Amino acid sequence: MIKPADLWKLPPLEFNKWRRENDLKHLFDCFQKTLPHFDEWLHLYEFSIDFILNTNKPGSFFYWNKETILFKTNEYGSDDYFFVPIEDKSHDKRLKKTYEGEKEKTVQYRFKPYFFWAKEKLKTDKIVKTNFNGEFDTFRYIAFNTPDAPEICSATISPGITVLKLGGTKINGWDDILFRNLDFTDLDFLEIEGKDSLSRETNIFYSSCRHLKFNNCIVNFSKFYACHFEELKSLNSRFYWTEFYDCDLFAAEFENSSLINFIVKDCSASRFSFNRVEVDNLIYTPPKKEWHTGVVRTYGMTAENYKRFRVLFQNNGHRKEAGEAYYKERYYELKYNFAQLEFKRAVELIWKNHFDNGLVMLKHNFSKLGSTISDFLSYLLWGFGERPFRTFLCSMFIVFAYTGLYFISNIEDIRGNLTNSFYLSSIMFTTLGFGDYKPFHVGEYKLLLASEALLGAFTFGLFIAGYANKSKY
Predict the structure, then answer these.
(1) 5 vs 362, residue with greater confidence
(2) Whole-angstrom Cα distance, residue 324 to residue 312?
(3) Residue 30 covered by a domain
């Protein structure tokens, strides 16, 4: 069996050829046997396994969740392939216009990636079936053999295939990655050391990248799609336009490094660590629901991630980004707390005569309910201090609501007069009280006017505090 270090010594063209004739051929034979209607999909778009493998980008035929155009060019004497997912009709028109005059140089294949097509055909998200770990919407890493032994560990992807081992060794810089087909590979415990890096885009799909280590390294224009990361470490390294999409990204540690245009989108991520890290344009978009934990835990981990990013932005002096991260942190804490309320469960326990457990849970939920409602009002009224303009909208709502109450009241010169009703509401909300109207002869209206004055004073306080709060970073 060939060792990972020997495979890395092969030139990229020979490396890709070896993969096409060995592990990828076996992998796609397995796909044909296990993926539902896979042969039908191949026949529909007139693809063959050889054609897919010859692109050296096999993961791209599965990933995108929208119609995609595959472009084949031969501009430099060898075939080159690149994929463009169609965002909308206007994007499609622009693509047609751009390549209209290059039909002789460019061949186009329009298709729906396999998982997108299969979900439409089968009317379900559960496409990939395994014998021991359930059903999945795409390829997932479901097992790791001897995960703490770099030399002999292995990674198994659904539906139950052990992928090619390329980790447990060291390579000389990110340049060794370039031009290689690294889709569906086991890069666990791979060490990348060295600053040589060309400005060439690199895409990696469906690979296991546990304990990946970057040391004194430069990583440019690299994108990871649906890869599995654990314990990623970066020491004295620079990441420029590095992007992660739909990945598992657990316990990533960055020390004395720089992150420039660093994107983490729809990833299951937790336990980021930043120490002496320079950042510029870090974008984080959490998933709506994680495939392995469920939505409740997603909210808690997302709040923690935004907390880590907030501190990172503060340390770099990015006040606007830090404020936005704080808002998202509090927002996801609120969603998490709401999701944690289990009144229904408490009532069910009491109903089933588990009084002690039910009462304890009920008491716990009521104690959390108070703080949750307080946080919700803070979110609604001024966005936890980061959206002070909301207090202006609340002010307008209060003024118009009281205008309506005064309009239908029995206050002399006010009832039925919209102008006077709005005027009275305005001066009471702003606590000016010119004395034009004195509805003292009707007791309940005294309380009505006083309540609006109190709301006005409170709202103005929030408005001022909100803008003062925005300078805290």
Answers:
(1) 5
(2) 12
(3) no
> 127 burial class (0-12, 13-18, 19+ CB within 10 angstroms)?
buried
Contact 171, 10 (CB under 8 A): no
- Please indicate, yes or no, whether residues 289 and 167 belong to a single structural domain of this protein: yes
Residues 6+ apart with CB under 8 A from 443: none
The pLDDT-based confidence of 412 (bands split at 50, 70, 90) is: confident
**272: helix, strand or coil:** coil
Where does a domain end: 125, 153, 187? Answer: 125
Confirm if 69 and 108 have CB atoms less than 8 A apart.
yes
What pLDDT does 346 receive?
A: 59
283 shares a domain with 354? no
b/e sequence 96-106, b meaning 16+ C-beta within 10 Å? eeebeeeeeee
Please give the biggest Cα pair distance in the chain.
98
Q: How would you label 227-260 residue by residue, b for 16+ Cβ within 10 Å and e otherwise?
A: bbbbbbbbbebbbbbbbbbbbbbbbbbbeebbbe
Mapping DSSP onto H, E and C, the string for 323-339 reads HHHHHHHHHHHHHHHHH
User: Taking the CB of residue 87, how many other CB atoms lie within 10 A of it?
Assistant: 12
Structure tokens at 16: 């890709």
| Three-state SS sequence of 408-419 | CCCCCCCCCCHH
Give the model confidence (pLDDT) of 51-88 as tens digits.
Answer: 999 999 999 999 999 999 998 887 666 778 889 999 98
Predicted TM-score (pTM) of this structure: 0.85
Question: What pLDDT, on a 0 to 100 scale, did the predictor assign at position 429?
Answer: 85
